[in-house]
Specification:
The chain is an alpha/beta fold. The protein has helices at 42-48, 98-101, 151-154, 160-170, 186-198, 212-218, 230-234, 252-256, 279-283, 297-310, 324-332; strands at residues 2-8, 17-23, 30-39, 65-72, 84-87, 90-92, 113-114, 134-138, 143-144, 178-182, 201-206, 222-225, 239-244, 259-267, 288-291, 316-319, 339-343. The strands form four sheets. Strands 3, 4, 5, 8, 9, 16 and 17 form a seven-stranded mixed sheet that branches. A six-stranded parallel sheet has the order 12-11-10-13-14-15, covered by helices on one side. A two-stranded antiparallel sheet has the order 1-2. The mean pLDDT is 97. Keywords: Metal-binding, Oxidoreductase, Zinc.
Length: 354
């Protein structure tokens, strides 16, 4: 077994603290990864604080993992020692259902194996995520990080990047399409960069105009404050696609009114509350309300290669592991520009507190 240092939530709503555990020795198809950086996704906060229910503790969060391969199992063909790799939101799936075969592992009928807060497929090992020194993952669930992308700023692509790339690609964002992103946070800022690179006309719908200069620098053509009611009159019937990244309740009917005929409002943010929608908001304009969940392995690799081609990385603020609890509070307060990334070298210092 491989001794691993990490930070875990021992209980819901408790501060994360040092945690020592073991990773399995590599099986035939496993890759052992020395984790160098891990992004902090708002989903980490939701799960560590048990806002979605059913959290499994102790929990080492983290599913925006970037690192270097240090060992491979005897049958591994895709990776070798020294390769720059990433791991996203899941580390396994059944591999047999129609969705797994189509590369839509995130919709595996038996359930994907989450990178953390899940049971591994042996039914008894708790999966543990990327706020740790090492992870062992089957080569088929590992991504290659292109050489031109720095590992720290590429880490958030593994969740925030793919979560926006997938719906943008599915709903065909591109030249001639008007795309709006609600919420300029970790997911939202990646959405702006990706939609802009795809050639779409991009609008940010943010709570205020505080982040306007950033939004425009990231690639937005337009920027509106949703606290201003005039925004909703002015933009009525404008967009082909709106992606909502907000993790709080919003006025769904008001946003549906911003869609063109046949437009789609896609949910990726996860508020605790249900989504209330009036029938007229949908039937007036044949509008769709849809959802999207991360992306499959093949599409995640496609996204990473797209980012390398267009020079897209995340805007990050790098922190040491002992700043993680403060970072969680700042994520909740929308006070991050635009993703915290933990430098895992900090786990091996005295300040980490082991
Ligand atoms: P984040 O960095 O906190 O960004 C969320 C943004 O939403 C904020 O920056 C803020 O943008 C806006 N916002 C926050 N509170 C708001 C409020 N009360 N009303 C209106 N807008 C508000 O979070 P994230 O990491 O991007 O994650 C966003 C959500 O997506 C989370 O719920 C997360 O669990 C979920 N998620 C889903 C998937 C998926 O596959 N579907 C994957 C990853 C994450 P402004 O300041 O611009 O208003
Ligand atoms: Zn995430
Ligand atoms: Zn499956």
């Amino acid at each position: 077994m491989i001794k691993t240092l990490g930070y875990a939530a021992y209980k819901a709503k408790e501060a994360l603290a040092p945690f020592t555990f073991e990773r399995r020795d590599p099986r035939d198809h496993d890759v052992v990864i020395d984790i160098q950086y891990c992004g902090i996704c708002h989903s980490d906060v939701h799960q560590a604080r048990e806002e979605w229910g059913g959290s499994l503790f102790p929990m080492v969060p983290g599913h925006e993992i970037a690192g270097i391969v240090t060992r491979v199992g005897p049958a591994v063909t895709k990776y070798k020692v020294g390769d720059r790799v990433g791991v996203g939101c899941f580390v396994d799936s059944c591999r047999e259902c129609d969705y797994c075969k189509q590369g839509l592992e995130q919709f595996c009928t038996q359930g994907m194996t989450g990178t953390y807060n899940a049971m591994e497929r042996d039914g008894k090992t708790l999966s543990q995520g990327g706020y740790s020194t090492t992870i062992v993952v089957d080569e088929n669930y590992v991504l290659r990080i292109p050489d031109t992308l720095p590992l720290d700023a590429a880490a958030p692509l593994l969740c925030a990047g793919i979560t926006l790339y997938s719906p943008l690609a599915h709903w065909k964002a591109g030249p001639g399409k008007k795309v709006a992103i609600i919420g300029l946070g970790g997911l939202g800022h990646m959405g702006v960069k990706l939609a802009h690179a795809m050639g779409a006309d991009v609008t940010v719908l943010s709570q205020s105009l505080r982040k306007e200069a950033d939004g425009r620098r990231l690639g937005a053509d337009h920027f509106y404050a949703t606290s201003d009611e005039a925004t909703f009159t002015k933009l009525a019937g404008t967009f082909d696609l709106i992606i909502n990244t907000v993790s709080a309740p919003i006025d769904w009917n008001a946003y549906l009114g911003l869609l063109k005929v046949d437009g789609a409002l896609v949910v990726v943010g996860v508020p605790e509350e249900q989504v209330p929608v009036g029938a007229f908001s949908l039937i007036m304009g044949r509008r769709s309300l849809a959802g999207s969940l991360i992306g499959g392995i093949q599409e995640t690799q496609e996204m990473l290669d797209f980012c390398a081609k267009h020079n897209i990385i995340s805007d990050i603020e790098t922190i040491a592991i002992n700043q993680v609890n403060e970072a969680y509070d700042r994520v909740v307060a929308s006070d991050v520009r635009y993703r915290f990334v933990i430098d895992m070298a900090s786990l091996k210092t005295a300040e980490a507190g082991f």
